[in-house]
Design goal:
Strand order of the largest sheet: 1-2-3-4-9-10-11-13
Number of helices: 14
Bound molecules: flavin mononucleotide
CATH architecture: Alpha-Beta Barrel
Order of helices and strands: EHEHEHEHHEEEEEHEHEHHHHEHEHH
Shape: globular
Radius of gyration: 22 Å
CATH superfamily: Luciferase-like domain
CATH class: Alpha Beta
Length: 441
């Protein structure tokens, strides 16, 4: 039995919009960096593969009159908080989200190279083209480009960044005090890239990252997003579960195969949002409590948001969700909602969706229930491992570590010690990429 890779993704104010109202919630400490540093340390104690920082350039869209009832105030700059985490931990991997639309590639290459050195090779870059129209409005008055153009630009962007990371060969420094030669001039390379979107001379003024390249993470769910994920992504995230997730895995692995990549070069983590109790009933009670604290409009909001900002109240509650003609928002999240089925397998109406759907990867139950779910999803080819989104920070993580991690270990599905070379690549079994200028791996 192999270990199941696990990462954790905390959100400011928690994922569930009512979690800040729990007595144990630490949401009022959201801007205290030690809340997140302690969480990263807890992830390291529990031997998690990685902690993941998402990012966004705007507030989550909720009805303005209800915003003061939520604690989802925003997001740390993922690269900056990741740097603090890197300095305060020594083993756990760190996945930082950064946008190809908002930052110049040279700056991105420097920042991730710097962070990979600071963390001694524990970093992944979650390549996001752009979050939402709200993010774009805080960057430029131009509308968000269409996905095809965004991903085409992103492919060139990542290629340029990798080229910059290869500027210095690993053994460029000779440090020969006697002869007065510090580095071998033949091992420093300009990029001289002149492409459709970027003109960059190089070389990078930071040494090659410890991992060669930081691990490339990706979570695109649209057609062009999956193309990029399959062609360059190494650590992929999906909000899907069950057969929809299995179809996603098959598709990105096929794209990867067509690009000449091997199956082991891709690891898919599916979203898991656990509510765990000592018993199933205790977990269900936790869920009921959370839901009972939300006004009707906020109960619908996460689902409406994933469906692209649609107002479900405008449709008859008897409408089958497959009859909704929707195209807005993020395709992966839209598909996660639209692939929800009733317990008997039938397509739900809007009313049934609102009653029964708990969000992507939400599993409410005992440690055994959650471990069973995880094992079944992995065995069914739906994913290789999981990205935990926490309804409440940090209390749902504490519950997971206290209850589910021991259950997984009992089943031989999770490590008790780190036994890798200390880099995120080493931990995930990903090869260190060779330098394009011929440096040995
Ligand atoms: C687990 C997970 C985490 C994500 N985190 C972020 C994030 O932090 N910021 C963001 O803008 N998008 C995030 N996304 C959205 C995607 O990365 C991507 O931007 C989105 O899917 C749009 O691309 P697409 O049109 O190819 O789906 C996340 C998606 C998933 C599944």
């Amino acid at each position: 039995m192999t270990h199941i890779p696990l990462a954790v993704m905390p959100h400011i104010g928690g994922w569930h919009l009512a979690s800040w109202r729990r007595p144990a919630s630490q949401a009022s400490r959201s801007w205290d960096p030690y809340l997140w540093i302690d969480l990263a340390r807890a992830a390291e104690r529990a031997k998690f593969d990685a902690i993941f920082f998402g990012d966004q350039y705007s507030l989550i869209p909720v009805p303005e009159h209800l915003r003061p009832n939520t604690a989802r105030m925003g997001s740390w700059d993922a690269l900056v908080i990741s740097t603090a985490i890197a300095a305060q931990t020594s083993k756990v991997g760190i996945v930082a989200t950064a946008f190809t639309e908002f930052v110049a590639p040279y700056a991105m290459a420097r920042q991730f190279a710097t962070l990979d050195h600071i963390s001694a090779g524990r970093v992944a870059w979650n390549v996001v083209t752009s979050g939402t129209p709200g993010d774009q409005r805080n960057f430029s008055s131009k509308p968000l480009a269409d996905p095809v153009s965004r991903y085409e630009r992103a492919a060139e962007y990542v290629d340029v960044v990798k080229g910059l990371w290869d500027s210095w060969e690993d053994d460029a420094v000779i440090n020969d005090r006697e002869s007065g030669v510090f580095f071998d001039a033949g091992k420093l390379h300009k990029l001289d890239h002149h492409g459709k979107h970027f003109d960059i001379t190089g070389p990078l003024n930071v040494a090659r990252p410890v991992q060669g390249y930081p691990v490339i993470a990706q979570a695109g769910g649209s057609g062009p997003g999956k193309q990029l994920a399959g062609s360059i992504g190494e650590l992929l995230f999906t909000p899907l579960s069950g057969t929809a997730a299995a179809a996603y895995c098959a598709e990105v692995r096929e794209i990867a195969g067509n690009a000449g990549r091997k199956p082991g070069e891709i690891i898919v983590l599916a979203q898991l949002t656990p509510i765990v109790g000592k018993t199933r009933e205790e977990a269900e009670e936790k869920w009921r409590w959370l839901q009972s604290k939300l006004p009707e409009e906020l109960l619908r909001q996460p689902i409406e948001l994933m469906l692209g900002g649609v107002d479900l109240a405008e449709f008859s509650p008897d409408t089958l969700i497959t009859d909704l003609e929707l195209s807005g928002g993020i395709e992966g999240f839209r598909n996660a909602v639209l692939s929800y089925r009733n317990a008997d397998g039938s397509v739900p109406t809007i009313a049934e969706l609102l009653r029964g759907y708990r969000g992507p990867g939400t599993v409410v139950g005992s440690a055994e229930d959650i471990a069973d779910y995880m094992e079944l999803e992995v065995a069914g080819g739906c994913c290789d491992g999981f990205l935990l989104l926490l309804h409440g920070v940090p209390e749902d993580f504490e519950d997971f570590c206290e209850l589910v991690v021991p259950e997984l270990r009992k089943r031989g599905r999770f490590r008790s010690e780190y036994d890798d070379d200390g880099t995120l690549r080493g931990r995930l079994g990903l090869q260190r990429p060779a330098n394009r200028h011929g440096c040995p791996v």
